[in-house]
Write a structure and sequence with these properties.
Strand order of the largest sheet: 8-7-6-9-10-11-12
Number of strands: 12
Helix content: 25-40%
Structural class: alpha/beta
Strand content: 15-25%
Number of helices: 12
Order of helices and strands: EHEHEHEHEHHEHEHEHEHEHEEH
Bound molecules: glyoxylic acid
Radius of gyration: 22 Å
Shape: globular
Largest sheet: 7 strands, parallel
Distance between the termini: 35 Å
Length: 326
């Protein structure tokens, strides 16, 4: 460990949830790294750690015990936009800031949102199975899908990612509706979107409903029985936000009873779903393993955004991307 550099606690180096191998040198040039495993084995290393890096995917257990062991800790840098895995109030009671990476993830997540929309709309999963089957055929009615051009996309949550999705949808010549806490006049104008103050209005008119909100007490189970009843039977739900934004039992029922046509989900609860979960067996469901940010570019940008926040904290500057308002 290089004693000259500020100390950083990281979950792990390499592995599936750790700092990617290709980012290790970049980090090591700036910080003296210690992993959680090393920390657990030898706690006295910790006292001089002033920053932490965590990946939401590991649902890191940032508890009082850890915070007490890090008396000089200034900031927890969390990869990704969502911070629902961290108890920010509790963390800030220790004088520690939390920073996320809201800019790094916008394009990759918006791209995945459109991927899910296209894959579900065009019955791509089934088409792929037919294409690779030994008994493949020249034409199959099951791969006749829904249209995109001219159809209505309802975006629930017009933040950074929602807006990027709207830009992509505009290029696909879709009609765009959005529901958001606040109206976004400039964004509306630039993509030709219409604001729906009531979520029900958006649900009733949309052919594709895209969930892009942060998970919070206000948005938990935002989509329940009533909301599915509001949707068109021909409509599809796409969720790239957090699983808990949807009442999953109500979703299963809506899919089983034909209240809605299909769902494409990057997020569920829990993740991954138990292997006997009904959503895994439905032909009108496309599942991805929570991979909105999983591109090389986004991972690199996330690391850069986290390092910026950590360097700010080390240098006593206002911390970039500090998460406030909890
Ligand atoms: O889920 C990924 C993120 O929060 O960016």
């Amino acid at each position: 460990m290089n004693k000259e550099l500020p100390g950083a606690l990281v979950e792990e180096i390499g592995g599936t949830i750790g700092v990617m191998e290709e980012h290790v040198d970049f980090l090591k040039e700036r910080f003296s790294l210690i992993t959680m495993k090393e920390f657990k084995e030898n706690k006295e290393h910790l006292a001089d750690k002033i920053v932490c890096i965590f990946n939401w995917a590991n649902k890191p257990d940032v508890n009082s015990e850890l915070l007490k062991a890090l008396p000089r800790l200034k900031v927890i840098a969390s990869a990704g936009a969502g911070v629902d895995h961290l108890d920010i109030k509790m963390i800030s009671s220790y004088g520690v800031k939390v920073a996320n990476t809201p800019h790094a993830v916008t394009n990759s997540t918006a791209d995945l949102a459109m991927t899910l929309l296209l894959v579900a709309a065009r019955n791509f999963m089934e088409a792929h199975q037919i294409a690779v089957s030994p008994n493949t055929v020249r034409f199959h009615a099951n791969w006749v899908g829904g249209d995109i051009t001219g159809m209505t996309l309802g975006i629930v949550g017009m933040g950074r990612i929602g807006y990027k999705i709207a830009q992509r949808a505009k290029a696909f010549e879709m009609k765009i509706l959005y529901h958001n806490r606040h109206r976004r006049p400039e964004e509306e104008k630039s993509v030709g979107a219409s604001y729906c103050e009531r979520l029900d209005d958006l649900l009733q008119q949309s052919d594709y409903v895209m969930l892009v909100v942060n998970l919070s007490p206000e948005t938990e189970k935002l989509m329940g029985k009533h909301e599915f009843q509001m949707m068109k039977p021909s409509a599809m739900l796409i969720n790239i936000s957090r699983g808990l934004v949807v009442d999953q039992e109500a979703l299963v029922e809506a899919l089983e009873t034909g209240q809605i046509k299909a769902a494409a989900l990057d997020v569920t609860y829990p993740e991954p779903l138990p292997r006997d979960h009904p959503l895994l067996k439905m032909s009108n469901v496309v599942l991805a393993p929570h991979m909105g940010t999983a591109t090389r570019g986004a991972l690199r940008l996330m690391m850069e955004e986290m390092v910026q926040s950590m360097m700010d904290a080390v240098n006593g500057l206002p911390v970039s991307n500090e998460v406030t308002g909890f």
